[in-house]
TrEMBL record:
Domain DUF5916: 233-809
InterPro entries reported in the protein's UniProt record: DUF5916
Name listed for the protein in its UniProt record: Carbohydrate binding family 9 domain-containing protein
UniProt-listed Pfam families: DUF5916
SUPFAM superfamilies documented for this protein: CBD9-like
Amino acid sequence: MLLRPFLLFTLFICCYYTYGQAAQKERRSYTTQRIETPPKIDGILNDEAWSLIESQGDFVMIEPGDGDPIDESHETRIKILYDNEAIYIAGIMLEEHPERIMKQFTQRDNLNQSEFFVIDINTYDDGENQTRFIVTAAGTQADARMTGNREDFGYNVVWESAVSQDDKGWYVEIKIPYAALRFPDKENQLWGIQFYRDIKHLNSRYVWNYINKSLGQPSQYTGLLRGVTNIDPPVRLSLYPYTSTVLDQFDGITNINFNAGLDLKYGINDSFTLDMTLVPDFGQVAFDQVELNLGPFEQIFGENRAFFTEGTELFNKGNLFYSRRVGNTPIGFNDAQADLFENEEIIENPERTDLLNALKISGRTDRGLGIGFFNAVTDAQEAVIKDTVTGIERRKTTEPLANYNILVLDQRFNKNSSITLVNTNVTRDGRFRDGNVSAFLFDIFNKSNSFNFEGEAKMSNVNKPGQNETGFASELSVERTKGNIRYRVGHEFANETYDINDLGISFINNYNNFFWGGSYEIFEPKGNFNRFEVGVFGQHLRRYKPDVSVNTAGGGRFFAVTKKRFAFGGSIGYNSEFKDYFEPRAEDTYILYDAFADMSFFVSSDYRKRFAYDIRMSYDEYLNSSYNNLRFRFSPRFRFNEHFNMIYEFRYNFQDDRPSYVSLVDKEVIFGNRQQKSIENSLNATYNFNNKQGINLSFRHFWSTAKFGEDQFSILGEEGDLSQIDYAVTEENNPDANFNIWNLDLSYRWQFAPGSEAVLLYRNSIFNEDKLSDLDFTQSLDNLFSRPVRNNLSLRIVYFIDYNNIKNLLRG
């Protein structure tokens, strides 16, 4: 009954807007030329090849203005050539004051405070999916996959670039091999292309093909690259063998491990690429931002493993893929403790599953159909349990061999719209659980590109031993996407059995929610502001079964950037009483939190200056109780010179008198008033010798205490109310917590050849969690340093091998 109106609405939208086009002025075009002798990539444009073709200029402003021609003093011109191996691009950036060119030495994908030159290439000219290549004035490379306005800098391919500078400006030479691109298999290529120039010291950015910021998305405003014909690209096969050595010392025990493995990229054809990782090694990934988590939901961590961040734009459609599920905690990890017999103890219980191998195949046909397939296999894990009386050991499987799969079909049309089918599934041994989720998505603009219609319908199926649960969820929204005044209305729904948590992540289900909002923004400088936006928003949250109101809220927000690049903004809102069905950890039970007002603000100074800072603060005040919540963040940064940069961050969070879950006693939910305080200090310092070698220091210390007030315990009533009781706190049921974690990484990174690097990493970490919530910061820190310290030293070397280089070498 719920699915039928969704499908009818989708059919109407798809039929009515079949002929939509991205509205823009006449597209510029550049006709390139084939060459026999490629230019040398050294940043100096004196090769004969560049004299064979004319340059194009006439860049126009995109920020802060809208379409103003670039001044002659900063004229920017481009040239493009190609052969059977690659395309070659030259950029000429004039500058009347070359001493003002900002260039900071950074490592790959980190632009920081450098001026830069951007190339966006859309080989299918579909208005959305494109590859971005960036070169800074200091010579640093960055590359990303673009999907609409979203940049995925986890995407890394091998290409060449070099820069030079003289008294007239700076210059860039770029070689992009076809191995770094995917394009349709046809004789005459017609690619979308766009060029940007960022002039940092002028606080301005210019583009080659005009972009109307008030209508649609920038990706819909590429120009055209013509003239690429009859290319016969070489085999796209790249190998990334690696070796790593790890020395680990903890609590008097020293281990030395040696690992070796291989990543592989293979171009199945011009459009599709196979990525594989065999015997993967994730020993040098960044540490997780672990915090004290007393809530009903698991903590979400960002993905630090390169294989799961690179080229995953197709697999992220519909938000059904939380990559940390692969290699996560075994599904039966907590069951091992629950299944202990008398006199038994756990002597080994792995907290992570081992990834055996993973692959992904992705690409797009010349008709705009994107196809993605992902597969990963994780190894079985067992807990070792010992009888303390007899000494007999037994093993309990906590996670069987598991297979993770994703299949995506994404059809782009009209250069601004798409429909998508997604399926994810996880298959385990039948004694555990299997999960399967299917989704239909659409993202459609009307003919004039002034309205966007977006929707999702998702079906989940979870197979447990003797039980099969099917769930459904949907989203619908309509948004005005043109002009200074914009608005949006939306609806989201999920029934009580919707569950995507085998490969995705979803904290809540059983909801029937409505959202709305509107805004006014400027697209050209006005008065003292380069950007300015004000908006209003609101929501009404309901349960699906039973159909009851959960919360109604509304508020306003603002954001502004001055001409001197000082940014500030904030929000203010009001929430009605809120029925929280998740904090009690009991089915069909809620606690009723009082109505509250919230406010926030932030300021951010000009990053171009040597010293800059960010300040952010928010506060929640519950109107009929003593519960309140304060959050504060201060982050100064200092750029000592073009090589050395440092960022410090301080966070403080204080919750006072929050009614919080304590335990379940004889089917009664016990609550207590909790005071929680958190302090976090972090530091990131980088010294780059050049854009190939650098030293990085990353440090984080997080401390948090949670203390429940004496004689402030209650029983949760049927109407979400609390009735005070006498609750005896013992050593076993003490809900207080003192959480302390320290992480320090010091690394040296050297990119010794294109696509090849060596990383030497020293890691130092300490962790402690206890019930000593009365300790102050200094006492808790002393307590932390009394714990065993883990010291880890590792060296990892990755070497890039291009099959064509090997073939040519063997021929020679």
